[in-house]
Amino acid sequence: MPHVSSRRLRRTLATLALTAASVAATVPALAQQQVLNLYSARHYQTDERLYADFTKATGIRINRVDADDAGILARLKAEGSASPADVILLVDAARLWRAEQDGLFQPVRSAVLEQRIPAQFRGADTGQGSQWFGFSTRARVLVYDPTRVKPTDIDSYEKLAAPAMKGLICSRSGSHPYNLSLFASVIEHLGADQAEAWLKGVVANLARDPKGGDTDQIRAVAAGECGVAITNTYYYARLMRSTNPADKAVVDRTRVMFPNQSSWGTHVNISGGAVARHAKNRDAAVKFLEYLASDSAQRYLADGNNEYPTVPGVQTENPALAAFGRFKAETVPIAKVGANTAQVQMMLDRVGFK
Length: 354
Description:
Layout: H1 6-32, E1 35-40, H2 48-58, E2 61-66, H3 69-79, E3 87-90, H4 93-101, E4 105-106, H5 111-116, E5 133-144, E6 169-170, H6 177-190, H7 192-204, H8 214-222, E7 228-232, H9 233-241, H10 245-253, E8 255-257, E9 268-276, H11 282-292, H12 295-305, E10 308-309, H13 319-324, H14 334-351
Parallel strand pairs: 1-2, 1-3, 6-7
Antiparallel strand pairs: 3-9, 4-9, 5-7, 5-8, 5-9, 5-10
Helix pairs in contact: 4-14, 6-7, 6-14, 7-14, 8-10, 9-10
């Protein structure tokens, strides 16, 4: 056995100790580099803060793929079991329901989510947990020109089909998910025959062919192109909070109506999330959904993108939401809204709602 000096032995042992310490320090560092693959239909720059805060709190980095609801669902089907997606975020109740029916999600049993997210904003519990959870809501309201339209003319969705509304309505495409969900809920309230007659009346009252997004409809009202527009609350809230003089002028020229306050309530849609069926990082995915139900994330959804929190009791500092005030929201089950959308699309084709 070769002779090793005591000095050399001490140096070797010291080197081994440093190496062991380095490896020990690297293990948590590698854990912090865990990646969560997120497919998101939320195209809101304000959400960047949400993702950054989650990474800061957990060390889990988010790799995001953006597309619209339909694009995400098509991609999940095409990728199958090879999909890298861990979490799916969609911005329409009917699409959440559709994805659940198509087997694109997996059930989640979480005490945190079940305690904080009301049952009306969760997928049905099949015994293994819910397959999706709603984290924010937005109301489908009417923005109108008070010099051309009286509040009593539009205090219900039904009145949009009245002869008095001839040539006054602006809307984005009837086939857009936000409108599909609204129209699907109308079927639940009026029945299929009356709902189709109503849609025919709305089409007859359009001021122009549907084009653009919700903000475009609001601006068209302010510009005098139409008298009333169908829009989600958060689009109008953005204009209310804007410092742009042109946006302030739009708000000054228009008003907001929450329809059906004396009957079934204003239609609300949700933005929600789910764990992908073939998620490779399930634990991190559940942790992210639970984070979205936290007070801080709920407040940011409200203050950052002008949405209503789904967790009861969360206090926000959003002046636009405060200005809207409290309102009666409809309580149509999400499953029924989703199930009606295919029927709505056929109605739209028949009545010519582009």
